[in-house]
Amino acid sequence: MSTHTHDDHHRPVDADAPVGYYEVMETAVRELLIGKQLIGPEEIRRQIEVLDSRTPALGAQVVVKAWLDPKFRARLLTDGRAACEELGISFYDDTRLIVLENTDKVHNLIVCTLCSCYPRPVLGLPPDWYKLKPFRARAVIEPRAVLAEFGTHIPDDIEIRVSDSTAMVRYLVLPLRPEGTEAYTEAQLAALVTRDTMIGVVQATIPRTQRTSL
Amino acid sequence: MSAIIPSREPSTPRIIKAEGEQPIFAPGDRVRITKRFPVGHYRVPSYLRGRTGSVEKVIEPAGIDNEEEGFGRNAGTKRHYYRVAIPLSELWPGYAGSYRDALHVEIFETWLERN
Amino acid sequence: MTDTSALLNRLANDIGGAQAGPIEQVEHQLEPWEKRCHALADVLDFHKIINTEEKRRGVESLGEVAIGKLTYYERWIAAFANILFQKAILTPTELARQMDLVAARSTSCDVRSDYPSVRSG
């Protein structure tokens, strides 16, 4: 069996250092393709703007609406992409979205063991750890240990359901709404829905500083 | 006097579906992931080869074979992907978590056999 | 005789269930070129020049050593170059010449065997 480190370190870049080999390659490829009129001169810039506009705040918006509107929730669970599009969240690629609902019986976790499939149109770009070997290798064989590293402990009578993306479907976890948030505004609820709750490595919780004793 | 014969509603013409249009498997079906080891591009992780599971969902609409798509063939016969559920305790000997824990994964129709 | 089939029929990215250490919860802001590289992937997919699955296969084809040593976006741009050659959209000579031109545009006079600094795009 082959062994490899599959390391993916980010190489820190010094602003005054010579431009790296791969940056030169990227620039050259882009300029050649534009020169041959295979891509338009503004398309890369435009797509960067598209990418920059996709952040976990969009996913939080979807989750909060599902928490507050049972009919939207039902539509979201039937067709994730169509429900996101109702909120103006366009999908710029051909992927589909299945929203995975956490319940009192099931806790969902998403992973792409083969590469880094991730619901980018609604969450933005994935964190490095999601793309690196330890998470990808271990999420499908020891999800509870993985969750423990994020401080998450799910009781044994709750199923942990790991979804491994291998094709054109992308996943988004719909976390459980924390207890004690009945009076929260939409903005307050949205602040509880972090990126990691929608990957499934943590649950949505009220931060310690916000908790009030009864 | 001849009897009036009530007209019959025309029945829906019987259609023939194209290859791949009709999913072969349905939710609840027990399936086995083929034990095949292709050279080149594949999208069925090796940890799943030969495993059995249940079909949770038929993914609609049908899609292109992503293994062929990797070589630029993005047209042609479409088939279905299926979301298949496999208990982790069956996938991994000595699995230490809950017996309820499961893996769900999309598998293309050409990789599945009825169990 | 050793069985070398796994070198061909087991991909380096096929790591589900493999042994691995703790998850370092690292994340970094993308460098501008990395973001341009990601945008390039999307634009190539949109134009049906290189689709996402071809990109994945292209990265796999770099082989285990390169995959282990190149960073995420370095793998992407290397894969794109190879696929563009295979599709006769670019030739190796064209790319080499353009890379020399890009490298030669410089605000400093640093002359090295590596590429000197260039204005960022």
Description:
- The complex is a heterotrimer of chains A (214), B (115) and C (121).
- Chain A has 214 residues and is an alpha/beta fold.
- Chain A has 11 helices and 4 strands; from the N terminus they run αααααββααααββαα.
- In chain A, strands 1-4 form a two-stranded parallel sheet. Chain A has a two-stranded parallel ribbon with strand order 2-3.
- The radius of gyration of chain A is 20 Å and the shape is globular.
- Chain B is mostly beta strands and 115 residues long.
- Chain B has a single domain, classed as SH3 type barrels (Roll), CATH 2.30.30.
- Chain B is flat, with a radius of gyration of 21 Å.
- Chain C is an all-alpha fold and 121 residues long.
- Chain C has a domain at 31-103: Nitrile hydratase, beta subunit (Cyclin A, domain 1).
- Chain C contains 6 helices and no strands.
- Chain C has helices spanning 5-9, 32-46, 52-61, 64-69, 72-86, 92-104.
- Chain C is globular, with a radius of gyration of 18 Å.
- The termini of chain C are far apart.
- Classes of the chains: A alpha/beta (214), B mainly beta (115), C mainly alpha (121).
- Chain B binds chain C through residues 37-42, 45-48, 66, 69-72, 74, 92, and chain C through 5, 8-11, 14, 16-17, 48, 51, 53-54, 56-57, 60, 87.
Tags for this model:
heterotrimer; A: 214 residues; alpha/beta; Nitrile Hydratase, Chain A; 2 domains; two-stranded parallel sheet; two-stranded parallel ribbon; 11 helices; 11% strand; B: 115 residues; mainly beta; SH3 type barrels; 5-stranded antiparallel sheet
